[in-house]
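Model: You mentioned two targets. I'll fold them one after the other.
Researcher: Yes, keep them separate.
Model: Target one:
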Amino acid sequence: MDALYLGDPYMNEFEAELVSVDGREVVLDKTAFYPEGGGQPCDTGTISCGGMTFRVVSVRKNGGIIIHELGEENSAGELKLIIGQRIKGKIDWERRCKLMRMHTAAHLLASLFHSRDGALITGNQLNLERSRIDFSLEGFDREKIDARIAEANGLIQKNLPVKFYWLDREEALKTPELFKLAAGFKHAMEKIRIVEIEGIDRQADGGTHVSSLGEIGKIEFLKAENKGKSNRRVYFTVK
């Protein structure tokens, strides 16, 4: 299956072929819908074919297959009539764009906490209204958090470019700083996608991102929590 969002996160409409239907679960030969994973929520939107439009309410990956779940009002019986035909998919762009901004902001903050404080990511969850990152930090210092967010906003004002590319697994694993998760990189894949904020950060990542830091807007600190001996949770949003 061709995951179109990996090559173009700004793609919000696409055409594909309907491969299979199981109840309200639909598989396409390619898709721009991002499936939930890595702390990033899935895309939502619509699939249209033969004059009918169906809501896509959830997207997940099962092995190498991306499964689109349709709204309860959609009829699987009607869908079976159009298997093999071309469909048009449309992403909820407002949702996708907000999550892209949140995701790139999370990478920027993770990079600064890593480079300045040696912190690794122990958990994360992106959402539309607020997102969080958990860090392996010994000290719980509000001044340190404020300083990192201020530095991130300063870099956002420079509007540095964000790009992605692929590296062979063997080559990527030679560069430990590409992997900022405390749990390590456990995915068995021959090529690893790298997201790079020019001059600031490089991370292995399969999510969607903006193409320049200026698109983030501004990172705002919301709150911080102590989640254990050396686990600090930082909540933020983008405006």
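Model: Target two:
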Amino acid sequence: MSLLIDALEQGMVYGIMALGVLITFRVLDFPDLTVDGSFTMGAGITAALIVGGWNPVVALLLGVAGGMVAGIFTGLLSTKLNILNLLAGILTMTLLYSVNLRIMGRPNIPLLGQSTVLDQFRSLLTPIGLGDYSDLVFFGLVLIFLKFLLDLFFNTELGLALRATGDNEQMILSQGVNTDTMKILGLAISNGLVAFSGGLVAQYTGFADVGMGIGMIIAGLASVIVGETLLPTKSFIWVSTGVIAGSIIYRTAIMLALRYGYNFGFKASDLKLITALIVIVALATPQVREKLNLKLGESVGI
């Protein structure tokens, strides 16, 4: 039961990050590697401000703002300086490592003894006997709220223009839409969500580390791919639902692999290997399914 609760909590808090990755990689068709840096930036700003005596909610929101600035910077590199999308993300991710160290002042900031938003929410649920499940309830409410906002936004005129920019840039450009602005907006929203996830993870784990964002883009992509495999649809409402489910499944698989993987020779240091294997399986599943359907169709035709 404890394993399931931990998997759900982690799946939901990292699911916020996965929604951000969904916006860049699937909506904008922009391979944005800023994620690894903006995740840490959100965590670093939040932790540094909390230790400095700031209200944890304000600290979290400023962390989100930092992530949005990082996304805007990547967008400007791509649209105004005509740097390749992939390279623009790599450049921002690289410089953010130093920026995050400057913000944090040290490689690691512990939050032991500091009041966080999770502590405040736990104090509200404890009197009604739900204190032990406060993190689960909090992450669930936040994730549902953010998903609702995104689903609503991507069905507005601005949101549809953003989706059209990723689907057919030339077509939407001919309609008078500034595609550069759309890309910058999408990157800002995406990295804001990633930073928000980072700020929550820092408060959930009790520390912020300058290297905690390494590999986040792979985790986000894994969640997106697993979600698409579960719900192969173009409706954003169901796509976002699939990504959240994918994040929970991915985190559950990681936790199961870490807990029982020693039976198959895996060690805790093999986390990146396990992550890569899960992504490979998720990527290969649709192609294997298509080939099986094709063979089944041929056999029925015969």
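Researcher: Noted. Anything on target two?
Model: The chain has one domain: 2-301.
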